[in-house]
Write a structure and sequence with these properties.
homotetramer, 336 residues, 4-stranded antiparallel beta sheet, 32% helix
């Protein structure tokens, strides 16, 4: 950590700062120039609150050299994390394909799609029971009943399931769920993240609409520092000025996250681009860029979906996409 | 609502769509051109889920003409909403000035600042007990104890208090709190918003970092549709590409929100710009633009704040700012 | 085009508007609802200036149904445009690979790299002679001399060349250049675009840092409406809040642009991500998503590049990348 | 400047870097930690190209401590720059009010508005002769004829004029123009900026849609390093995700720019918000925040403007706004 001081700082304040930092176990190196005075901190600066330092009158700027996350950091955990849920595996060369509708609508719907996506090659099934919708007048999901339908589909097909939690109080309903999803709008719902830190299940953590990759890793760190190291990172599009697509899918997140962290990285092309006919090219791009998994919206009859229709592809389109993903995965493996 | 159809749409699908819309009480006007086919909907389209329509094969695009919110809409409630909390009032010409530290740190700290900001002219006191921090290693607030310190300060000074809730489960602790704040990161925590819809207290709702003004009003609508109409909208800076300031304070939100909605609009210049010495000019700008209130971070000794230090001004700087706000308010009143 | 009128508009103004629109050859359909009054325009609305209409007192909003571009529009030109320059071809199934350094530094440098990228499989060579740099103190390019070095490299290797123009006055120097590049900062330098409309050479038009895909196509339309239909669209990253990468590469632009337009779409992964070791995964992703070409920065010794060093890969890394692109292109062709 | 090195860097490369930096007159301080190795540079680092350093294998990151601009930097020029053009003055406590239509349409139009804005209190007149329009089919301005109309209006009213240049080749037409405007889309048209560096006239430089304040100051530096120190900085809204306003007016730019630079800072509320009825509150906010001037679009009959209509106010609305700006300026002066 580098602290740029104002020229001719108050001596007492400077001594106080030095004492405070030394007490945290840090070593201090001073560099005096003609137009600048710089303090370099050596040691574990993860616990240093840069805001506190910036607040000091004598400080001009503070810059981190080290990343502020530990558990999620590849530097301290060089090997890929491999996560298994209900028989499906992601990370360390294992590719995980999740498919299913945006919302659970009925027992028949979810069991039907489960059969079809399983036949097409999906390893897990997704479906929303609790639905975050920007309008209070839009369909809010079947909630508890939706989860019971998902569990029936799991029993019928053997496909493990992933579904979204929206509040700590819903946790008891997730006992038989294989992976718990935290949605983009809850990426910084820190009370929820803390609670999930003590759950013994993988968490599929979606990146917030306007969160940096560092904030994303800090949210993973919230879960991991609570003791749950099974976090899957999922990029699902960020908010930009562009309106031609629903969000802007940030595929650069794949190489960047995989370099910074050992956690598996999944892509959700459906929510990102928001246009069903463009889901296939973005899925293939994600695989080519090195994604560890995909989570794709599939709906029997897109026209009748109760929510997020425009981004859902049909089971047939999904099967056709899988037939293009597989040779691409093989090609990718050959070059690794 | 305007639905642009693809040329030569499937007749059966078109009839199904028409029937569905007619059953919702909407009237349909068709316009056929040489290169387009457009369906205009007349009636209350608030309940129409545009995503469902967009999902149809025969549809090219859907555009709303009416706003998707009702309770928050000035069209249906032309007069300004006036909200009173613990004796302080906002809206309809009443200006509310809230001040206090980012975090509650101790009984002495919060009582001391309360005295000072009251003397300087604040109508309410703020202070965070539950703190949303991007790092799990940063100070998370005194939580329940913090609220008890705030209540002591309230008893000592008579200043009503506003403090942030982060999870539904914390609600019992807020019984004597005058205004409940929902932070930017929870603007779309819909489960929390629904719960606050049945609370009989004003809610200070902060705009999310990357949320549009329409989404902001939809979140207010979540609370209002639950029965609680006392919502104060608070702009606190949005996330843009600019890094010279912490966020970009969007003062245009003032005239736009006040035209679209009857709810009072408050500005938080401290979190927005994130630089203490620039809080004063942005506060004055907010007043000149027509804000109904300001919420300003004030700290006894900025250098020692446990969080968000860089954006806090001292009680003396606050008093000086108030002495500039008051004549500006008077000037503003003369021109209304 | 849909014009939403205010309720009870001034009759005379409404009649004036109708006359004006009818005189432009448009047919008008009115839809009157209880809370809205909507005017639908049928015909060629490309020439209608929406700003003019929005300025009218009686108008609330204007929404386009048709795209405001014609020459670049796939609706009027369903087949892919195929562009050939100096023997290299792009579009309609032809993939074009361009490689070379950010800046031309010397005759030896550019001829050396030209040999190497040709051997590795590049179809064209790039190299900047005129360099747009945000600082006036940074290297501004070898300018005219740089172009002469590029032409020598072309003569030696037979590789056609692409290089950037920054001002109309530089045009005479580009006579033997095969493709003229317009950089991101000049995407809306309309005087330059108009001038290039009368040039008989392909133009590689880069998307601006904060320009929408519609604005991008409008800039292509500037060139095409002048008579030059040989425009290659190049996505090179957009500016977002994310700071982990130099820009955010928007690969969604590929399927979206290729659907809206018949022009070839190229990707510049080097400028987009700005980190040499992440150029390969983003290149492969672009190919998987359907890009018609790639323009990649290659430098002999990245550490010594006079500009934009961090994003350049070595000739060896480029050769290795080409050996992965080729089987991917083959796989892609099989599925089309 | 702080250079973070990789652990255990190649000794020869490190020595080469040190020699290169020392030859530039910089002093080097090394700090070795357990997990980091940092090099601090002391001296004038303005001329150091950070990209070159970042490109080195042994370097992990480079961070500037000093600003990369000199001429525009308040550190080297503590007093406000005061600029006078045709009798109107801006900076150092002088407030400049510019008004006029977006486009020059006819002699009568521009002379008429000139009379009215002068009577209302404007110090200068604006009007576009060369118009940057995103569509090639939109009105492109009267060009040379437009400038001659502006000059007639100047002769008739005595109001000095400001108008936009779009290309170096247009410069001869600007001989009698008092202030030359560089539009947002040309903020990084470096060839144009260089040319304006040798012109003996004030330049009104508008901030680009997606340019940081540092880039903005670097563009001013381009002009100033050429010898022309009369640069007026103008914030006119930046591009964000918000669609309720045309752009997001970044008023934080006022205190930030005035701290970093001695150049006067002007605000263009009309282009920023793009909605005529919201121009007044944003103008007052700009004054309250400390702006040195305003440039406001005024049009006789907004409904008939040939471009940018929605953001123009009438002469009567302008006069009313001026009657509110003046007492605000007086109040502001009392507190300085």
């Amino acid at each position: 950590m580098i602290i740029s001081l104002k020229m001719n700082p108050d001596t007492e304040q400077l001594e106080n700062l030095k004492t405070w930092l030394t007490n945290m176990g840090l070593e201090i190196h001073m560099s005096q120039g003609t137009r600048s005075l710089v303090m370099g901190l050596i040691g574990d600066t993860t616990v240093v609150d840069t805001d506190l330092i910036l607040a000091l009158d004598i400080v001009e700027d503070v810059k981190r050299i080290q990343e502020p996350y530990k558990n999620a950091n590849r530097k301290f955990h060089p090997d890929d994390t491999v996560i298994t849920a209900g028989g499906a595996t992601i990370g360390g060369g294992h590719f995980m394909l999740i498919a299913g509708p945006c919302s659970v609508e009925s027992r028949e719907q979810i069991c039907g799609i489960a059969q079809e996506v399983k036949a097409a090659g999906a390893h897990m099934m997704r479906g929303g029971a609790f639905k975050p919708r920007s309008s209070p007048y839009a369909f809010q999901g079947l909630r508890g009943e939706g989860i019971s339908f998902l569990l029936e589909a799991k029993r019928e097909t053997g496909l493990p399931i992933v579904t979204e939690i929206m509040d700590v109080s819903q946790l008891p309903l997730f006992e038989e769920v294989d992976i718990i999803q935290v949605g983009a709008r809850n990426m910084q719902n820190f009370e929820l993240l803390k609670e999930l830190g003590s759950v013994n299940k993988p968490i599929l953590l979606k990146r917030g609409l306007a969160n940096t990759l560092e904030e994303f890793l800090m949210s993973a760190e919230y879960i991991m520092s609570g003791g749950n190291s099974k976090v899957i990172l999922c990029e699902r599009g960020i908010r930009t000025f562009e309106t031609a697509t629903r969000n802007t899918l940030d595929l650069s997140a794949i190489p960047v996250l995989k370099e910074l962290s050992h956690l598996p990285v999944m892509i959700d092309p459906s929510h990102a681009i928001g246009i069903a006919r463009h889901v296939a090219p973005m899925s293939l791009a994600a695989v080519a860029a090195g994604a560890d998994g995909l989570i794709i919206e599939v709906h029997h009859n897109p026209a009748a979906a109760l929510c997020d229709g425009p981004q859902s592809i049909t089971p047939a389109a999904f099967a056709s996409l899988v037939s293009r993903i597989n040779p691409l995965l093989q090609l990718r493996a050959e070059f690794q």
